[in-house]
Design brief:
By secondary structure, the chain is α+β, with helices and mostly antiparallel strands. It folds into 3 domains: about 30 residues; about 30 residues, no CATH class; about 140 residues, Immunoglobulin-like. The chain has a 4-stranded antiparallel β-sheet with strand order 6-5-10-11, with no helix packed on it. A 3-stranded antiparallel β-sheet has the order 3-4-7, with no helix packed on it. It has a two-stranded antiparallel sheet with strand order 1-2. A hairpin with a 2-residue loop joins strand 1 and strand 2. It is globular and about 45 Å long. About 15% of the residues have low confidence.
């Protein structure tokens, strides 16, 4: 039986074309399923001004912002009086007022370092974050003030007696934490504000004479 030579050649070319098509489709599938390091929280390296800077996307979310922090979109407003160029023992007054239609259940206030942004409960607790004082810096002054709002639809005044000085204490991890307030070390009164379905934080800068 004779086999048509043209038929064999055309069949062979068809098989080769199919193989090439399979290889192309396979390579495209592998490239589309590759993992993106940025989306998985891996570190990325970029060059700026000739230097190499490594940024961990995973750690960015837990890094505190520098300086006083305010939780965005809180359903209330805050105004402070007497928080600049104060003397040790002076009173800083803060008025917290719920927005129309909202409520405010209470305020917790602490005296904290001025160079960190207190943006969560861990940073707010002295023995966890090491940012806020446990005991007053001097007799007759405040380390923490806790107020419940008897009428949640109305505003609340927080009177906080600040002080200068330095305190060192142990955190839960066993490390020493030091907080200093004075003319060369501005501090902040950090408010934990409680409202429907959550709470937020606001830092009030305090500078000393």
């Amino acid at each position: 039986m004779k086999i048509n030579r043209r038929f064999l050649i055309s069949s062979a070319l068809g098989i080769v074309a199919v193989i090439v098509l399979i290889v192309i489709l396979t390579s495209r599938g592998n490239s589309s399923t590759s993992t993106n390091p940025a989306s998985s929280g891996a570190s990325t390296t970029t060059k700026a001004n000739g230097s190499v800077t490594t940024t961990s996307l995973q750690s960015t979310a837990t890094t505190f912002p520098p300086g006083p922090y305010t939780t965005p979109s809180m359903p209330l407003s805050v105004e402070a009086q007497g928080n600049t160029k104060v003397n040790s023992g002076d009173v800083v007054t803060v008025r917290a007022e719920p927005n129309a239609g909202s409520l405010m259940y209470g305020v917790d206030a602490r005296l904290c370092r001025g160079d960190v942004g207190i943006s969560n409960e861990g940073a707010f607790r002295p023995t966890v974050g090491g940012n806020c004082i446990i005991d007053p810096l001097s007799p007759g002054t405040d380390a923490v003030v806790n107020l419940e709002n008897a009428n949640p639809s109305q505003g609340l005044d927080v009177e906080f007696r600040v002080a200068t000085g330095t305190t060192t204490f142990k955190t839960q991890s066993g490390k020493d934490a030091t907080v200093t307030c004075g003319p060369a070390n501005p501090c902040q009164i950090v408010l934990k504000l409680q409202y429907p379905n959550g709470f937020g934080f606001q830092g009030i800068p305090v500078t000393f004479r």
